[in-house]
Specification:
64 residues; 5 helices; 434 Repressor (Amino-terminal Domain); mainly alpha
Length: 64
């Protein structure tokens, strides 16, 4: 699974919309949308924030 698919899976498992996730992790809705559509990848700090929010290892989000 690619990052975009993993992010969407984690988000939907928590029952969140893209807007709710954006608000929770303090990123723009546009950024979340670009990540989920595979148009952009997050940087290290963003990955750290996402991993903490979803309570998963950072490598799990990247599927390493």
């Amino acid at each position: 699974m690619e990052f975009k698919d993993t992010l969407k899976y984690l988000r939907t498992e928590k029952g969140l919309t893209q807007k709710e996730l954006a608000d929770a992790v303090h990123f723009s809705l546009s950024t979340i949308n670009k990540w989920e559509n595979g148009k952009k990848l997050p940087g290290y700090e963003a990955l750290r924030i996402l991993a903490k929010f979803f309570e998963v290892d950072g490598n799990e989000i990247l599927n390493l």
